[in-house]
Automatic annotation (TrEMBL):
Keywords: Glycoprotein, Hydrolase, Protease, Signal. This is Uncharacterized protein. Belongs to the peptidase S28 family. InterPro entries: AB_hydrolase_fold, Peptidase_S28, Ser_carbopepase_S28_SKS. Residues 1-19 form the signal peptide.
Length: 476
């Protein structure tokens, strides 16, 4: 294994070449310089010894001998220097003389273990392999840092792992599974609790609308849209699509597209000066001369215009069966869909009709809407439905009693009910050196952004709490 880890490739801009030795510690390479580590396709022997190259970036600007290493991953996105230069971990590195590393997740960006995204290739996308990738890099960084870093770094440095959203899962799992490698983890808005039928996602959006006073009108507009979508009247459907300015899709795909466009703002940070759900959704429902449907149309059209989306892009966003047989690399959505199909579900559906809950998306967005594509996209080996209960038994329960993990989440986070602190209270017992903080008025992963004068006071307090925990871990 160590022989494999020692075979490293480095790349600067577009050219890939072996890394030259840095002559002086003051010669700090740019944090956009690409580095590569050789990893097994399957850490557990299922790929006949095949290997691949995993990309990572390093910001060594603040490092001093003895400082910690802050490791992060963007999760389901390609890496970029914003993860080493533009997050709260950058601030922590400055304060602690630390070094920053961000590592690309397998099958995202340029880090591809296989030549395509077929179901046969994606079988190597398992949580075990993902964590083993990161553990291999951290182990090499501790035991042979000269093979990983472009400047001299102390051996056996302390490592803090961090991430937000799904990457927050990775951070917490790394501390749980590899405590001998990872001293502590900052898991912001970590979506660690799987739900097969995740209508709670929609209810979180509704709570935000309720706080802003437009939930009732929004839900009425959704009901009116459903009356058309369920009518099976082609002329009425075409008229509705023309009114919203969306392409001619099936009723269920039209419903999914409208839901996606209106909930998009719910992930944006709330600050002392802006709430994007208020300014981009509820604002349209405050027009006294408009009906709820008029307001819904205005909100959707404004979302399309603000994003600058073409009709073709809307088709790509809304057509759930698009690219069924397209196995080309670089499709973030396809890889994420596979993770939902085979790992954790979390299908964002409307609540069941008999649940007595308000609906903020069409009832056509149901389990069948999502799950029919799993086997079409990835083959009959994908079990339908995914065994979310088994996922939780293995991966959520693994977090119970784990020390030195800082969990954060916003009170308005649309993913809140899949975190360790859903709307009905914490679902993990307290552990030594760990903490759970719900950030009042915040949405998704707000605490990991750089400090700003417009930050909510609650966000600033959450960062301070995390900073104190990190100091505590480092002093152990």
């Amino acid at each position: 294994m160590m022989q494999i880890l020692s075979v490293l490739l480095f790349a600067a801009t577009a050219a890939v070449a072996r890394c030259a030795t840095v002559r002086d510690a003051s010669e700090i390479p740019a944090s956009t310089t690409q580095y590569w580590i050789t990893q097994p396709v399957d850490h557990f022997g299922g790929s006949s010894g095949k290997t691949w190259q995993q990309q990572y970036l390093v910001n060594a600007t603040y490092y001093r001998p003895g400082g910690p290493i802050f490791v992060s991953t963007p999760g389901e996105s390609p890496i970029s220097a914003k993860y080493t230069d533009g997050s709260h971990f950058t601030t922590l590195a400055q304060r602690t003389n630390g070094l920053l590393v961000t590592v690309e997740h397998r099958f995202f960006g340029a880090s591809n273990p296989m030549p395509d995204l077929s179901g046969a290739s994606l079988q190597f996308l398992t949580i075990e392999n993902v964590l083993a990738d990161f553990a291999a890099l951290v182990k090499a960084a501790k035991q042979a840092p000269a093979t990983i870093f472009p400047i001299p770094v102390a051996a056996n440095s302390r490592v803090i792992f961090g991430g937000g959203s799904y990457a927050g899962n990775v951070a917490a799992w790394m501390r749980a599974k590899y405590p001998q490698l990872v001293l502590g983890a900052w898991a912001s808005s970590a979506i660690v609790y799987g739900r097969l039928q995740n209508y709670q996602f929609d209810q979180s959006f509704g709570r935000h609308l309720e706080a802003l006073g437009c939930a009732q009108a929004f839900a009425q507009a959704v009901r009116e849209v459903d009356s058309v979508l369920l009518s099976k009247n082609a002329a009425s459907l075409a008229s509705l699509q023309a009114r919203f300015g969306i392409p001619a899709l099936s009723p269920s795909d039209s419903a999914g597209l409208l839901s996606g466009l209106t909930t998009a703002y719910s992930m944006a940070p709330v600050s002392t000066t802006a709430d994007y759900v208020d300014s981009n959704v509820c604002l349209h429902f405050r027009n006294a001369s408009s009906t709820p449907m008029d307001s819904y149309v205005a909100a959707v059209r404004a979302a399309v215009q603000q994003a600058g989306m073409t009709q073709q892009q809307l088709v790509q966003m809304g057509n759930s069966s698009l690219g069924i047989n397209n196995y080309a690399l670089g499709q973030v959505g396809r890889v994420w869909y596979y993770m939902g199909c085979s790992w954790f579900g979390n299908w964002q559906i409307a609540p069941p009709l008999g649940a007595g809950l308000s609906r903020y998306r069409s009832q056509l967005v149901d389990m069948a809407y999502f799950q029919t594509n799993c086997q079409k996209k990835f083959g009959s080996q994908i079990p339908v439905p995914v065994d979310v209960a088994a996922y939780n038994r293995k991966w959520f329960n693994a977090l119970s009693g784990v020390s030195n993990v800082y969990y954060t989440g916003g009170s308005l986070d649309i993913w809140r009910d899949s975190t360790v602190s859903p709307s009905y209270g914490d679902i993990l017992p307290p552990a030594h050196g760990s903490a759970i903080v719900v950030i009042d008025g915040a949405t998704h992963v707000q605490d990991l952004s750089l400090n700003s004068p417009s930050d909510l006071a609650s966000v600033q307090r959450a960062r301070s709490t995390g900073d104190a925990l990190v100091s505590q871990w480092l002093s152990m």
